[in-house]
Amino acid sequence: MFAVIETGGKQYKVNEGDVIFIEKLDVEAGEKVTFDKVLALSTDKFVAGAPYVEGASVTANVVKNGKGKKIQILKYKSKKDSKTKIGHRQPYTKVQIEKIVG
User: Fold this and answer.
1) Which pLDDT belongs to residue 102?
2) Would you say residue 41 lies in a domain?
3) Which of 5, 26, 56, 74 has a Cα at 20 to 30 A from 86?
């Protein structure tokens, strides 16, 4: 049994018990979050939404909020004596999928 959910502008294929890293949500660790935007659902048969499956939802438990690994961005313009080095750490929310209803 799996579901395809949409959150943060991205799509994730999830099963019950999966731990996934998604775009940061405004929730605290230990809270529950429900994803109503279910694009596809597979129980006994496969159901695809148009665009979403009606009555389907995925419940997850928030494990933690954090930041990803730092990436380095280097901008350089030749012959202009111009270079800029900056870093970025993308915030994320780690969730564990508890229940798929549909």
Assistant:
1) 80
2) yes
3) 26
